[in-house]
Each structure stands twice: as C-alpha cells, then as structure tokens.
Specification:
- The chain is mainly β and 342 residues long.
- It folds into two domains: 59 residues, Monooxygenase, CATH 1.20.1280; 213 residues, Kelch-type beta propeller (Neuraminidase).
- It has four helices and 22 strands.
- A four-stranded antiparallel beta sheet has the order 3-2-1-22, with no helix packed on it. Strands 4-5-6-7 form a four-stranded antiparallel beta sheet, with no helix packed on it.
- The longest helix has 9 residues.
- The chain starts with 14 loop residues before the first helix and ends with a strand.
- InterPro entries: F-box-like_dom_sf (IPR036047), F-box_dom (IPR001810), Kelch-typ_b-propeller (IPR015915), Kelch_1 (IPR006652), KMD1-4 (IPR044595).
- One of its GO terms (biological process) is regulation of phenylpropanoid metabolic process.
Length: 342
Amino acid sequence: MYISESIELIPGIPEELALECLSRLHFSTHGVAARVCHRWRELLHSKDFYYHRKQTGHTRKAACLVQSLPVRSGSDETKPVGPPAYGVSVFDPISGIWDRIDPVPKYPNGFPLFCQVTSSEGKLVVMAGWDPVSYEPVKDVFVYDFTTRRWKKGKDMPQNRSFFAAGELGGRVFIAGGHDESKNALSSAWVYDVRKDEWAELAPMSQERDECEGVVIGSEFVVVSGYRTENQGGFEESAESYDLGTGQWKRVEHAWKASQCPKSCVGVGKDGKMFCWAESNSEVRVGTCGIQLGRRTFLSGSAYQGGQQGFFLAEGENGKPERIEVPDEFVGLVQSGCHVEI
C-alpha cells in the first residue's frame, strides 16, 4: 500500500515496522489513535489501511446486534414505561468485550424498529425500518465508521420496503424482496454502492418474497424463502441466487424447509447448503439469531416463547454451543444482526 513519507509514522522506526504496529491496534483504539497526529488520522481513515489489515489478518469479525435497550421504569411502577427501544450492540468474540454504538442523531431515543443491518469494508450499514414513534416505514440509510465513531447519512432507499433481504459483496449492499407500505410482497431488487452513495436497480426476482432472508455464499447473493402477497405466512422452500456476472437471478428449489421463517436464522454449512440455526440447539429455538463470525457463530434465542434470552458461541453446525456471560445491559432481545469485519 502507498504510505506518504513526509513525516515518520513512528520516529526512529522503519515505515514497514511502524505500519505493522499500527495494523495490530484493536479497532476500539482507532478513534484515540487517529487523534495522535494528522498522518495517523489520514492512515487509519483510509480504505487502503483497512484492506492492508484484512490481508495481513489483523481485522476482527464482531457481531453487531439490533437489540432491545434496558427498560425504563417509573419511580412507583414495576412495568416498563413507553414502547421498547432498540440500539446496536457490538460483541467482540475474541476479547469478550461488549459495547453499544451511539444512536443516529435523527433517532436519539432508539433505532427504527425492524431496521436491516449489514456491513461493508469495516463499516456498519443500517437501512429502513419503522419510525420508533409513528411506526411509519422509513427509507433512511445510515453508515457507521468505527474509526471515527460517527454516523453518516446515506442516500435514501428508492422506495419504502420492510422485512427485505440484504447482503454485501465487494463494497455494495444488495437488497431484494420484502413488502411495501400496502403490505404487498415485492420481487424487485436494488444495489447500494456504499463508497459512491448511489443506488441502482437490478433485474427483479422470479417471484415476490416477503420476510425473506439474505445470505452471501461465495460470490453470490442468495435470497432465502419468503412468501407471496396472497399467501402470507406460507414460507416457501425455494431461494433465488443473484449472479453478479450476468446480472440475472437463478432459482434454487428445495433450499429451505417449507413453512419455516428464515429471518435471522439461516446458517451455511461447509458444503454450501443452508440450514436453520433454530433447529441446531433447543436453547435457542425461539427468536433465534445466528451470525457467522468465521469458524464460530454467535447465537441468541430462547428455549420457549417468553423464556429467558440465551447467548452462545458455536463451532460449526453441529458443535456444542458455549454459553456467553453477558453484562446486564446487553441481555435484551436480539431482533437481528450481522457481522462486521473491523
């Protein structure tokens, strides 16, 4: 990578060694390190530095969770005051550290309900959802930079849609399916270029797919299951895979168990086949959220409806999940999540 040599990165140390030292800094220290000097700030904020860290194995996959915040109670009441609010929590599986991202300025009291989260080049991308006060669908896009610890407003989505599939490939976020403001299931698809802050329309899928789930398998964006407008709740066993080369969708039959909701619980095995994390362990069969973090997967859910939320790390599809000790302020319900390689 190109490094300006006008000022030494670390006085008295060769540039290559200095770069290696900075590459090893944990992502939680980047904000402080960027304030050391102009050159460090320029380096740490650059795309080249991110890819250098990734190529040399110094990035980490963290779980970013859309999670209910601790409830507020009145002084003489035992019940929560007001509707539930959601924040974005970050869990680093290597250090075991939990953190919470500051809310976006537009929604200071909680993120949009049912917002979609994905990541691109070490940044978190939050899209759509419902206004937490009015419950009206929104088209907002926000991008969070872990180095500056700041939010940037992105270009709005071309149309309102809820419960859609999303996945990232090569700096672009692909979305498809979901439903519009009138609850009509959608077959349309778009792609968002995070660097250019631009949207482009894609070819539509072969059918409508509401409450579908998006996963990336190799170089393909796969939209799993979902249901048609006239068959609400009747989840289908098919999926559709988008080919970046041809710009076309390929239908995949028998990819998912019919009648099973895929939201937040699609896993991908070593053979590339999809499975449901809710069926992997009895302790997370309800409200399941699975986020693959390399060899291990973050899992959350309950053993039964209304049961206590559990948090685990599992190795592989059949590995025994290991329970995670979680601070009290991070035990709320996980609505959805994604991994971010930071």
